[in-house]
Amino acid sequence: MFANLDFDVIRRALPYLFYEGMTFTLTLTGLAALGGLIFGTAIALMRLSGFKILGRIAGVYVDFMRSLPLVLVIFWFYFLVPYIGQWLTGASRPISVGAFASSLITFIMFEAAYFSEIMRAGIQSISRGQPAAANALGLTYAQTMRYVVLPQAFRNMLPVLITQTIVLFQDTSLVYVLSITDFLGAASKVAQRDGRLVEMYLFAAVVYFTISSIASFGVRRLQARIAIIR
Amino acid sequence: MSYHWNWGIFFEPNPMGTGTYLDMLLSGLVLTLKTAALAWVIALIFGSVVGVMRTLPSKAATWFGFCWVEFFRNMPLLVQLFLWYFVLPELLPRSAGLWLKQLPNAPFWTAAIGVGFFMSARVAIQLQAGIGSLPRGQRMAATALGLTTVQGYRYVLLPMAFRIILPPLTSEFLNTIKNTAVAITIGLVELTGQARSMQEFSFQVFEAFTAATILYLLVNAVVVTAMRFLERYVAIPGYITGK
User: Fold this and answer.
1) Spatial separation of the C-alpha atoms in residues A78 and B70, rounded to whole Å
2) CATH fold of the domain at B21-234
């Protein structure tokens, strides 16, 4: 079954896979999670604000993003971002955006929809008395959010946020459709160059599996710890 | 240089000779729905079995359920599709691998099975949570009535658990539909794939993707509405969503 497999091809490709591929994947995951969290929190605050229109806009955005396949969204932004750039900078032709910037924008906008739902649940999990008390202490809305509500919401939702980041980590592999050299893209390029699809894809699977498993194991431990504190 | 809009493109004949561009997109939609339907059946069957196993008293069953869920949850769907499509035929005995490779519609079957197994892990978790949310007394009452374990699940636990998890199952079904788009990478020309090839043939990027987007939104709306009716239909009076 595994008799005529050449695992040496993996060893030779290791530097390329990790220095180029995994670096891209991890950078994209980290920045997209950070951006998604910031935008997501903003969207959640919009939804929970008293302004009906803001809430409606945020709601439509979230529902819209969540009903589209990520692959389609990746294509959308890949073609749309140059035109948005042209519009923003007033250039005479669509500006060229690198593969990394394009996919980063895509993932931030896409993940913001998912992170916003998590943060919304987190904000709603804070008892009403707390913002009321903050108000009574004379804190402004911004201060209440900054010092009272958001730190707790973030803490309560940390396991879910990390789980979503693990999903994001796996989803970044979809930039494959733009022929970008992320980890899977790198594995696939070596696989096709050397005609070693079985070895490379198996290896990619093992790496993704190991990283995700360790991360979700960490989440479970974190959850247990938080459960004791509360 | 600005973009040239041409919304009439949908009614122009496509280069494949299969009618208009709109026909092309609609055939993609049909393939998306077919793949998603088959994948969902697979996900429900395997997800239910594994979900139940995770709640059984047997250690071995729980362990198997745990491994199943971890295996299918900790790898990107794209990698799983590659494993099914490129790796599996090579690892099988020669004749079986050859048969797999020559299978007509291989991308369709691979996508349905790949997405199905991927989603089965999620269904299993939902079902486990649903069964776990039932009061312990229900399982005990079933035993006290003399029902076997199978009967207890069949007549007492599962009918309630499935009703409870209907709303999350709806979103998992929507995820299944969306996830079939990943199969574009193994050559399944479903809705996103057709939009992509329409863009390549006609250069009308945004018309093609707008149409695909609208079709996905429509499918979503239909599924959500249908599931809401189903929820109301199976609701138990005096219970959760009951009247």
Assistant:
1) 32
2) MetI-like fold (1.10.3720)
Q: Is A3 on the interface with B (CB under 8 A)?
A: no
**Nearest chain A residue to B222, by CA:** A67
Under DSSP, the state recorded for A177 is G
Looking at chain A, which residue has its C-alpha nearest residue B183? A71
Whole-model pTM: value is 0.90
> A2 in a domain, yes or no?
no
In this predicted complex, what is the ipTM?
Answer: 0.89
Q: What are the domain boundaries of chain B?
A: 21-234
Direct distance between the N- and C-terminal alpha carbons of chain B, in angstroms, rounded to an integer: 60
Count of structural domains within chain A: 1
Tens-digit pLDDT profile for residues B188-217: 999 999 999 998 888 888 999 999 999 999
Which of B71, B73, B86 lies closest to A201 in CB terms?
Answer: B86
Q: Which residues fall within 8 angstroms of residue A45, CB to CB, at 6 or more apart?
A: A123, A145
Interval B22-42 mean pLDDT: 95
Expressed as residue numbers, the domain containing A141 is 8-229
Whether A198 sits inside 8 A of B74 (CB atoms) is: no
For A4, other C-beta atoms within 10 Å of its C-beta total 7
Q: Quick one: average pLDDT of A72-87?
A: 90
Residue B70 touches chain A, beta carbons under 8 Å: yes
